[in-house]
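User: Here's a structure from my thesis project, written as structure tokens. My advisor, Dr. K., wants to see whether a designed sequence matches the one we expressed. Can you design one independently, without my sequence as a hint?
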């Protein structure tokens, strides 16, 4: 039995061309990019190219890109770095209840340091409502952080409209674009964001790498101290081989974005239609919202997450849930709890399926058949 991977929102397979780029760099370019000799200069060339490619991908300047160890570190640098550097202007932060834990746990830590955080609700479609954000804004608000695409539901947030709303306010605007990058076109100037987070392993690049866009007007305090790498915003010798792979992944994502978008949309539609054809009772969380095509969050009435995921895995289908599963209990998804209520059955019977490089029409069809059989067995 060959397992079928439907969990690309968690991580993606490394693209073969990415692996080739990394292997070549490991073998031929081991120098420290801060060294002035020829070995260092070759490594520096790889780093400079990567920074340029990353910047161009979001229509930014090379000097605005900070390479990090991933999306989590980028979120931490953006949120904590801005908060600490600007607390003289105020100590109020606004975010949403549906953010990734890289954001939520970071602002929770800032609350322990005396910052005040407003957590915005979302409607039943998983969307942030502009009026609520407008009502939450205060003179002492120094940071608003709202994710571009939710990692559990795929719902796209109104980032451009939020940027427009905040343009005349002192607050900085950060968006976690980890699930959007590679799926949606991103122009930081049009979005009017000050900081933006990207992760490599969500676009078929290596794990342990990402970047943070920082607008040149942002006052940011470094969280680590050491060398002068990344314009003193994130010290430490850069992971050149991984960065070489990340560069290849970015170029592939940009070149193939429209093709991938259509393919994943086809996979999603085929998967859902097969469930319908099998008479499966289900609903899509966030169905009426604008969503990326590669993520669907499906509620199966009369089931529970643990039983579903266990049976899916035993049948060779890899999927996931926003719920934290432990022995004998399931903690409801914080995202779905925000969309509905904590007591809603959707919070403990919903599964996220996400499509990508590991999929084709055949294995998506096979996965849908297996899912349908399991759900039927668990509900009859």
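Assistant: Designed independently from the structure alone:
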């Amino acid at each position: 039995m060959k397992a079928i991977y439907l969990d690309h929102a968690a991580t993606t397979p490394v693209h073969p061309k990415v692996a080739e780029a990394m292997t070549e760099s490991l073998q031929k370019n081991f120098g420290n990019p801060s060294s002035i000799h020829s070995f260092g200069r070759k490594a520096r060339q790889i780093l400079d190219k990567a920074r340029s490619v990353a910047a161009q991908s979001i229509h930014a300047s090379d000097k605005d890109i900070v390479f990090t160890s991933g999306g989590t570190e980028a979120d931490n640098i953006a949120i904590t770095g801005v908060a600490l550097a600007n607390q003289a202007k105020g100590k109020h932060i606004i975010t949403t209840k549906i953010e990734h834990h890289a954001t939520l746990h970071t602002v929770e830590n800032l609350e322990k340091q005396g910052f005040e955080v407003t957590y915005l609700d979302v409607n039943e479609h998983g969307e942030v409502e502009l009026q609520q954000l407008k009502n939450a804004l205060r003179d002492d608000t120094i940071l608003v952080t709202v994710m571009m695409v939710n990692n559990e539901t795929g719902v796209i947030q109104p980032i451009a409209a939020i940027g427009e709303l905040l343009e005349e306010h002192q607050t900085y605007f950060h968006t976690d674009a980890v699930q959007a990058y590679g799926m949606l076109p991103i122009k930081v100037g049009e979005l009017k964001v000050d900081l933006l987070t990207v992760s490599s392993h969500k676009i078929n690049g290596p794990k342990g790498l990402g970047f943070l866009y920082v607008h040149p007007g942002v006052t940011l305090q470094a969280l680590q101290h050491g060398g002068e790498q990344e314009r003193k915003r994130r010290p430490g010798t850069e992971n050149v081989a991984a960065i070489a792979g990340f560069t290849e992944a970015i170029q592939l994502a940009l070149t193939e974005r429209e093709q991938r978008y259509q393919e994943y949309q086809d996979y999603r539609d085929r998967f859902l239609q097969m469930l319908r054809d099998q008479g499966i009772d289900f609903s899509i969380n966030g169905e009426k919202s604008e969503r990326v095509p590669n993520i669907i969050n499906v509620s199966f009435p009369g089931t529970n997450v643990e039983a579903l995921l266990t049976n899916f895995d035993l049948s060779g289908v890899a999927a996931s849930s926003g719920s934290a599963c432990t022995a004998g209990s399931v903690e409801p998804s914080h995202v779905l709890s925000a969309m509905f209520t904590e007591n809603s059955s959707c919070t403990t019977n919903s599964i996220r399926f996400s499509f990508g490089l590991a999929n084709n029409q055949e294995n998506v069809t096979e996965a849908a058949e297996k899912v349908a059989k399991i759900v039927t067995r668990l509900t009859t």
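When you compare it with your expressed construct, this may help: DSSP finds eleven helices and 14 strands in the chain.
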